[in-house]
Specification:
about 40% helix; DegV family protein with EDD domain; lipid-binding; DegV_domain_contain; about 25% strand
């Protein structure tokens, strides 16, 4: 039986132990400061980009892996006779999917299967982890691709942004919105639909109170959630993420809660102090 190997991009923000446990290959995006270019999570850390922002007032750009990066990552697996399923972040917010597809065309037909997760961060990670478990159990490439294309419709997320500075610097919040939001301590909640990120709600007041309200809303609706896995993502908010994980395990019957740390490609858009819940909804409750 041909072995299937799962790959994803670095915006999944897999902790090393998870990527190693499930044998998931990670292809990094790039973090770019002018002429300086670094591989996300491999050559630059989240702390470094925040330090540069506070000392220089500069935010980096992010860039998708080039087709050559994918070719370099995929070649050893193909040479071993493995088939690859690459699960990409949403094609609607990055050219990662397109570049992976270009790279796949350089290999024998059927060697590489590129799938658009229509998600990002923990949303893509949930799909990649499930895909890796299916591969471990001997599922075919077609079965794995079919699962991703079906389940991606049910992935949801609640991303609580602690401060508006980074959304403002990245052009996602106007100067007026930034000024008013900062004065009123408004903290937006971002969600994703059909591959596009949008502002779904907002909380006013301290971050701690906003986290409590987000948690309460989630717990009140936990019957709508697939309880096999929930991912808590955080950017320099370890204590808050630990609190969210502990609360979910104590107050719900969720089987597994994993914490991931946002890498540079994610963190330079949402800023420090961000806490997010990523999960799969039951099909009967999906919008």
């Amino acid at each position: 039986m041909t072995q299937v190997r799962i790959f994803a991009d670095s915006t999944t923000d897999f902790p090393p132990h998870l990527a190693e446990k499930f044998n998931i290959g990670v292809v990094p995006l790039y973090v770019v400061y002018g002429e300086e270019c670094y591989k996300d999570k491999f050559e630059i850390s989240t702390n470094e980009i925040y330090n540069r922002f506070h000392t220089e007032g500069k935010l980096p750009q992010t860039a998708a892996p080039a087709p050559a990066d994918f070719i370099a990552a995929f070649t050893p697996c193909v040479e071993r006779g493995e088939q690859i399923v690459f699960i990409s972040m949403s094609s609607k917010i990055s050219s990662t999917y397109q570049n992976a597809t270009i790279a796949a065309s350089e290999f024998p037909k059927g060697s590489i299967h590129v799938v658009d997760s229509l998600n990002v961060s923990g949303g893509t990670a949930i799909l990649a982890l499930k895909a890796a478990k299916l591969a471990e159990d001997g599922a075919t490439v077609q079965e794995i691709v079919q699962m991703v294309e079906e389940d991606r419709k049910y992935i949801d997320m609640d991303v609580l942004v602690s401060q508006l500075d980074f959304l403002h610097k990245g052009g996602r919040v106007s100067s007026v919105q930034h000024m008013i939001g900062s004065l009123l301590k408004i903290r937006p909640v971002l969600k994703m639909k059909e591959g596009i990120i949008y502002s779904a709600d907002r909380y006013r007041g301290k971050t701690e109170k906003a986290i409590e309200r987000m948690l309460t809303s989630f717990i009140d609706n936990v019957n709508k959630i697939d309880r096999d896995l929930v991912i808590v993502a955080q950017t320099l908010a370890e204590k808050a993420a630990d609190y969210v994980k502990t609360t979910l395990l104590e107050k719900t019957d969720i089987k597994n809660v994993e914490i991931i740390e946002g890498g540079c490609a994610i963190s330079c858009h949402c800023g420090p102090g961000t806490v997010a819940l990523m999960y799969k909804k039951k099909p009967s409750y999906a919008n």
